[in-house]
Fold each of these.
Amino acid sequence: DGQQIMKILCSDHKVSMSPYFMRPGFAFGGSCLPKDVRALRSIAADINVASPLLDAVLVANAEQINRAERMIHASGSTSVGMVGISFKPGTDDMRESPLAELASRLIDSGITLTVYDPFVHEAYANDMSAAGRGNDYNIDLKDRLVPTIAELLAKSDIVLVGNKYDETIEALQAAVADRLVIDLARIMPGAKSGGSYQGICW
């Protein structure tokens, strides 16, 4: 279990690092980290310094998105519910969100996508100026967003959990009994990936 291994590693508090950034899982995004990695690679190239580790970071990150997409297509489902589309929980910011990129790919492939994201939904419902912030893929989100996890489950054959929201956990755990749940946020710690409950990196 990769997450347990990293939990043990992070228990050494003599090492100055945030455990949050050491958890294996889905791809990262946002307005900072992807940009910073690209900037460091550019600086290295300018001074003719090889940066294989930095190069591999972005390749591996892109592959996580590819892997999630393959898992969804392998299910054969044409109706997918996505929990979370912002780059992290608790924000409506979709700048370089791997979930937004994944959503765009699924829509382009003909999949009917429904999205539950309380913060993005609130921004659209209240016509806030931030609504759609970072929606670089021009996803027609307003008509895909639903206000409750119950509505998402009613409209979806399978569910992909991108961000963890406490109010959804009980319903999602129950949903595993009758549909595939692809969990990128690990809402069920200790559960193994397999059968109708699948994850990445555990």
Note: The chain has a mean pLDDT of 91.
Amino acid sequence: MLVVGTYGVWHGNENGATKVDLRKRDKTFSDEQREALRNRLAEDRRRAESARQSQAKRAAARASSAWAKANAVGEADYLVSKGVQGFGLRYGTTGAALVPLLDVNGQVHGLQVLRSARLAAAGRKPAKEYWPAGMVKKGHFHLIGGSPQWILLVAEGYATAATLHMATGYPVAVAFDAGNMLAVASALAKRYRGIKMLLCADDDALQKCRHCKSRLVLADHPQFCPSCAQPHGASNAGLLGAEAAALDVGGAVLHPVFADEPARRERFIDSGRKVSDFNDLHAQEGLHVVRAQVEARLTELSWRVPAEKRAPSITSDGGEGSDRLAPIHSLNELLERFALVYGQGGTVFDHKEHMLVALGDMRDACVRKELHRAWMEHSDRSIVRVREVDFDPSCEKPGVTCNLFAGWPTVPQEGNCDRLLQLLWHMCGNEANQKALYDWVVKWLAYPLQHPGAKMKSTIVIHGPQGTGKNMFFDEYMKLYGEYGRVLDQAALEDKFNDWASRKLFLLADEVVARTEVYHLKNKLKALITGDRIRINPKNIQAYEEDNHANLVFLSNEAMPVVLEEDDRRHAVIWTPDKLSQEFYTEVLADIRNGATAALHHYLLQVDLTGFTNGTNPPMTQAKEELIGLSQDSPQRFLDELYGDDIPGLKPMPALSKEWYEVYKAWCAREGLPRPAPSPKFINALVRKRQITHPDRARKRYQIEQSVNGPHGFLMLGNCTVPDGKTEAAWLGDQVVSFRRMFSDYKGRA
């Protein structure tokens, strides 16, 4: 047996490699032996690499399957202990948080399982675990905060990355450890060309000697252990990994600076408690300190948001800044910017504008037609499948490489929005549970801002007198969504081309349904409110599907703006009180000019959503109960009023179904209902909605004097007990006679 090569044990970024030296007498080989050895080693490497790739592929498949089955909503003690939120995580059944290890195409290659100390001890498992065995970590990451537009922060652990994102709002990549910083930074630099990259290192200056395990500080003892005087073999892996990555991608490095550095070192030497990353800084000194250190470093580097990447701020007149489109001058821009969408009939995705355009539009944007031809003939042009194109505001959906979401378009600012909130409070004022209703509405408005892309399973309907401020408040709320919000009108809803629904997070349905069209459009609106996917049918581009992230608010002056089922759980209905004084609305407008809209954005981002989810049902209101009553089909209303003794001269009793239908039609005429339901629909409504036995299942004979008729279909309403001493046929005959007399009297009433 011949042993060659190196071996070692990794410590941070150091692999501890030791070369195997052959004894002198073993070093003499013939040329044939050397060639055979080289061939054998090459073949062994190929086999090992093939086995490694197969194992990695199996691990990725297992991880993808587990990720798909994990809970998208949940809680984890680990996150609570670290004081961070869950960004793009999923959750196990035991309370662990799952972090996906992704590549630049969104493919899941493995999972990191995060457990609190209590959960780890209870299950006798590590607090941090990579799963499954054989997964590849190198070059794979988890991206928080969406696609970077001009800057990307890279950190080691999830808690550190989440802290940095919470503090700054910038996108942050989780590299998982110092040894992976270089590979992750390199992959992301190639994917997002031109962005600036800040490598946020752990400060691993607090170490232990490899020999005697004594604690030491590298700044004080860079090479030798103060206890055993041997080379301690330790290094600042966090800083070294970040520096190597920064050098490779042309980025910069930042490490946390603690206010009391001597105390940090002393605490470690005395107790072994290690404080080294930005999450530790957040826990000790606050999130604002993390933000200040990042911003100070960016100022030092003179890094600023480029003009073309700057998100438009909400202005006093509600306008938004927009970049001027420019012709395309180079083949490189075409190659980097556009991807052909396979199977969509000449459609391309524009990575700069984050939209689908016709191939002809891309061609016409070129300064020379030769550019377009060169792109068509280039082997490196990007071609994507339809499933790779989607609207993903969370920027976390696996497999999406062409995101129709370009980043949040508006900027929150601290300020005064008290009068806007007072206006919302006033709109809830007709309800006895005003506070509960107001709190629910505020959380409903805040949830999709705090969880970009969240699809609420409910909607808000606000109707009432004109001039109460419905539009004043919700027009400002809609501005928070920039280009991803719009007013939905009747013409758009009925148009066969519905590209207005593409790339939308918020729709303000203003007087969207006329009374005669309510029932016709009910199902279309239902799909908009709760549907997970929506078919987009634009002009000049083949229809396609995208995720439906639009949340709706209905505004109306009508008494019946929407049609509600009796068991409806989707609608929060509010009937507004009379309007306030004109002076109040003037003050609200003045606040809006002074930044109240951006302040509302900031306020909603701070709302505590504990216990509230996108599926939390709205509270029942008096306005909703009244709207449900108005929404009833006429057969249901007829039967309810009949049993409630609300129709003078009529009472429920067994009778022929055809004759009850005639009574129903007469009642409709008296109530001013122009179109009674057809007989089959009348019967079906009573059977389905009021559990009346279908006449086909209640076919009976009835006897009047000596004549026996039937069997015929009966509606068995009211008291259906046959008296003692009578046959059912005779009793039903008496009921039919009494019914006909009752109907005749009813028709004769004025």
Note: The two ends are 114 Å apart (CA to CA).
Amino acid sequence: MLLNPLTPDVRSVLSQLDEKEIDLDPEFQRGDVWNRHKQQMLIDTILRDWEIPPIFLIINEGRDVKEVLDGHQRLKAIHAFHNDGFKVNGSLDPADQEIRSLDGCLYSGLPERMKKRFRNFSLRIFEISNYVEGEPFELFFRLNQNATLTSAERRNTFFGEARDATKDIVNFMDRKGYSAETIGFNNTRLGYHDVIARVLISLEKMSIQKKLLDKEITSRYRSKGAFSENDVDLVKDSLERVMRAIRNYGKIKLNKPSLFSLIVFVSTAGANVGDKDIKEILHLYMRAIGYADDPIDLGSLEKAIINQYSLRISTSVYDSRSVIFRSFFFCWLSHMVTSSILTSRYREKVIATLNELKSQSDEDYSTIYFNKVLVTHGWGEL
């Protein structure tokens, strides 16, 4: 099978589409259709004179036509826009004044310079020939088998100081020994990057009151501002202290949400906690969630707190209720080790919260009730 690389401009490809020299609807094409937003994103990319993925065409000598193997929706969007099928969306990020001025324009309404830019945009095309039966379809399968990118993987493509700080901290974690062998999970699909980004933004806001959405993290990455050096150093210090405790204690079992909450805890309420205390907190943590050989004897309130925590590391993990509860949970564990290791503000919050919880009967320990009490006592603020 031969793949011949070409770089025709949009004008040339549009002519081939109009003359039916390119078949947009061969039988093997998938039935998925891009929504308007995806189409506008593609046109925005072209108008910015950026790059789009290559298009693969099969030379079908029996039909004297080229069939689209991969790039069907891209070509359809280009053809539809040229025929005034939809308008430019000038509000797409990153903000660009020239693109913003085109908002709402059909192709026919574009300034002549932008029409020229669109028509002269070079497409990367591979024409496939000299193949045996099945080869093009195997290529099609391989082109489309990649897993969908996670939010962290998409954010990692942005250049900027926010991304650089996150990567620097993750590299620091690697040097210090964070891995599946020490904390129970590794950086697959950039899981550590996601945790650290959330930690840094939470510390920057000094609040976990509202759910931190992926689009908010992405927006922070797109901004030109760096995270403060103090916050970056604080997170590194917290990570190092936790790892020293792990090396003294042994492997612990965390996941992304529990690691997030642990690092936020050590960076805030546990700022004065020593290595020995962190080790004791981790041991108590492992006992509480049933991963240690010496489980804790629990009363009804303690059981309710631990059950609620188990729920909050597995369901709606970045919902504000989950994040707030986990913040309380690590402070509660610290209070059980010794209340003096918490900063005074957090120590007072733990005591006041526990006093209110103890005043209720067992049947009142619902998710809604816990959240109401925690919000009342200010657990949404760091």
Note: The first helix runs from residue 10 to 18.
Amino acid sequence: MDTMGERNRDARIMITLREDEMEALGTLYPALGEGRPLGVEDIQGELEAAGVVAGILQETLKQLPDKTDPAGKAVSCVLARGTPAEDADPAYLKLSQKLFDLRLYGKEKGGRVDFREARPFVVVRKGEALGRYLPPGPGTPGITVTGRILEPGIKKRIPFEPGENTFREGDYIRAAISGRFVLQRLRFSVSEVLELGGVDFHSGNIRYPGDVILRGEICDGFSLSCGGDLHSAVPLDATEVKVKGDLSVEGGIIGREPGILKVGGAVQARFIENLELECRGSIRLDGVILQSRISTLGFLQCGEKGRIFNSTVQAVEGIETWQLGHPAGRKTLVRCGSDFRKLKLYGELKSREDDLQRQLGKRPSEADAETLLQLRRELEELRDSAAALLRELNPRPDARVTVRDTIYPGVTIEICQVLYRVETAIPRGSFYLDPESGEIKVTGT
């Protein structure tokens, strides 16, 4: 056994090519004892002998001779690396990244995640760019470490197709309406209608520009806002609901704290309970209004089982119900003929006018002369505004409150700010404002 030869071994290197010739791996066996080390020229010669002519990592070559292992074991590293081909891009339709940015687990606010702000669907606006047609792009050839040229291929792109409620404008595909982005297989569209199984942690709070069909409950603490019509196939538990169009409910509407419902169109439901409702259109109900505050610019009609009690109801065009009030004498106020929005504004103007009057009643010093003049100007402007508004408070002096059955004590009827208090039960009647006497009168009793 030649132990002296083992102690004095010359350095050598083995070059190995990856199967696809994209890398050349060098395994260095360092010199031992008085053995001859390898130089950079030696390594280059071995690479050339192995057919490696491209992608040589010169810095690695310079450092490799200095790499040693205390036990004399082999050291390996990549000495050359090829350049892959970059595939050419075909002409294709690239969809906006926003369309795939779902927020399934809520939104962070102040360091905490609000799970009510989850978004399991994407809403787009009318005219919004959904995608853009991109022209074809050239590829770039590659090369292996042995110098073999790699021709570029063609990238695979998903062939999306625009569908319903989209249109092309130049290179862009845009939404023709506001609504929910829908992708079915390769075809995308915009749906005006959003169907929901409920409003909860899965859906998050709903803010939708189109119509909504609701098939489940709105859980406590969640809100719903839609820019079109809302149809609820179940009783509507309203915490905070806003509807720009019409609202139809296949059941009653029950308010949950804060119990606010605002509707830009008409409302149709079976009953209303514990709710604050503002509505621009008419209201049609089958049953009762209980412990609620209802305000509408239209007409309010309750059906054959309709009863209004322990509530405040304002309807500009008039009110019709089966019964009004309660045998126990619970307070109930119904008001018609007046615009509730302008009444509220008029009250705010009068309150501000009273405040200014109190300030002007104080004896001002000479230093307050300019302030006094400003207050008088503001008071005069307020009086002019209040006077103009007063002329618009009562758009429907012909509005009536019609009750087909009993009107109970405890009921107050107001028509154009004229009051009528019911002291004893009235079997039925239609209440109207007599233009000659300026008093509320009743017929049909």
Note: DSSP finds five helices and 40 strands in the chain.
